[in-house]
Amino acid sequence: MGHPEEVDVIVCGGGPAGCVVAGRLAYADPNLKVMLIEGGANNRDDPWVYRPGIYVRNMQQDGINDKATFYKDTMESSYLRGRQSIVPCANILGGGSSINFQMYTRASASDWDDFKTEGWTAKDLLPLMKRLENYQKPTNNDSHGYDGPIAISNGGTITALAHDFLRASDAMGIPFSDDIQDLNTSHASEIWAKYINRHTGRRSDAATAYVHSVMDVQNNLYLRTNARVNRVIFEGNKAVGVTYVPARNRAHGGQLKETMVKARKYVVLSSGTLGTPQILERSGVGDSKLLQKLDIKVVSDVPGVGEQYQDHYTTLSLYRVSNESATLDDFLRGDKEVQKELFAEWETSPEKARLSSNAIDAGFKIRPTEEELKEMGPEFNELWDKYFKDKPDKPVMFGSIVSGAYADHTLLPPGKYMTMFQYLEYPASRGHIHISSPSPYKAPTFDSGFMNHKADFAPLRWSYKKTREVARRMDAFRGELTSHHPHFYPGSPAACKDIDIKTAKQIYPDGLSVGIHMGTWHKPGDQYDASKVHEDIKYTEDDDKAIDDWVADHVETTWHSLGTCAMKPHEEGGVVDGRLNVFGTQNLKCVDLSICPDNLGTNTYSSALLVGEKGADLLIEELGLKVKLPHAPVPHAPVPKGVPGTQQVR
Ligand SMILES: Cc1cc2nc3c(=O)[nH]c(=O)nc-3n(C[C@H](O)[C@H](O)[C@H](O)COP(=O)(O)OP(=O)(O)OC[C@H]3O[C@@H](n4cnc5c(N)ncnc54)[C@H](O)[C@@H]3O)c2cc1C
Prior knowledge:
globular, binds flavin-adenine dinucleotide, disordered C terminus
């Protein structure tokens, strides 16, 4: 079917927010022509998308079929000891939801209230949070939904390591709770839920849920993939269409081959936090000084475009676990037999397969105690007083356990691992992204801003210590992988100890070299003793410095970019108003996580969907339509023989 040259609404970017907008609008009125233009490939029936357990592979960059765009800091950062950080972001239909780790969490109520925008309080948004969910876990509160298109469950399996982690966390003063995604809990642990349908064992991505579902039953949603939106076309300041180019320019020797599509009613930018500001700037909306320098005609002078880039920051620490532990390491290493077994298990019984999981089965949200606060230094305490003290629902850090090493296995010795993810939810640091040329093929100027505010070191240091104490108290703990920890002075009581000799000998029973070089290359850990009572490790100032250096060397994105087209007044650096209209333009909205004026304490897929639902409501209202509920039935990926073509809902 050929695509029309004019439609009613064009949605630029098929991430979670864009998919919600395009799908909801098209489903609301079969006569409304909606076009969704996505820079990456179609995700439909892609086994590297719908099988949950292979998500790690999506972070490989092979230059042929990349599912992500890798944004690299343009300059070396003095805050990262000269490093240039890399922020991968989705380049595929479904956006982050097609490649992400599928961890389900939600923002705290005060996060939305802090937007200070009419219609955006947590109370206003709660019905939309429910509307998007097909929640498949038992729960004891009324904040979840059951008839929406996005499935949330515990996946096919929960490892014993996760239970071990929860018990050890409890011993560290972090109580277990049924559900810490109730918008209020800020210090507790839980079985961490996943965007996986428990009936089908499939990833619950936004394109399958909102777009493929509608395209299966209606013909008014036009999907263009591998097409990069270049710019918005304006008549005066009214958006009347867009141009797009092939996502790769190799075919045309670098020449711009633009195709134009007209929009009778709206142009919606949903190209994500790093994509949307670039389209705005190429279209003449941004800081007039930058635009004039690049010879781009100014449509609206909005200096906030591309500013206030935010993320969450993570460091990962790796621990050895007992050889009996169930982990994904052999699968991830590429052991052919194990891969065959796990893929076969997933094919035959996806509802209980090990691959119907991300192996991230438990986690916690934490706030420091008064005692801990005293050790976190003046910069963080100032931030605490301003930001956290009066908002008891805001956690400072998240921590979660991966049953396996989230790492490049060629860099690791043999054996089994667990990874502690510790991530900072409300960093004070800020970055920016701006185009460096009017060409959509030229890399932008990007500064992630990671760690450029000193207050961000203390919570990362604190949570490293906290997760280390949890790890040491776990039954499966068998040492620290020293290469993936801070480099403390060898004589410090805080110095890491690696695998104990007994566990090492189990790995290489006939090995002749196990345990040699003790004290130089290998400082072995103590042999496992179930009766051991653990004392907290004491850290000196030098030890803290070692942790801070390690943070600077290794801190990285959690892929939770937001904030570059903030919803706040123009004079305060805002880009959109409360109805998501871009200042100084007509018929142009931004609907994705770029609109967040402040951070959200959550893994951000839930929030991207929510912003999409809110944007869809605003558009549907302005078009004089009504949202059609429930949404179109969500298809399987791919439809297996003898199984109904839709996912079951509760
Ligand atoms: C590797 C990774 C792991 C993550 N893990 C989790 C997790 O476990 N749990 C969680 O809750 N969240 C996670 N997230 C975050 C979550 O997926 C994102 O917050 C969410 O996808 C953001 O949605 P969005 O709609 O704002 O933008 P995006 O998802 O970034 O979507 C933007 C879309 O626009 C397209 N695009 C960009 N520029 C153009 C252009 N010029 N023309 C056309 N199309 C364009 C992109 O290809 C992309 O599809 C993860 C993200 C990543 C990348």
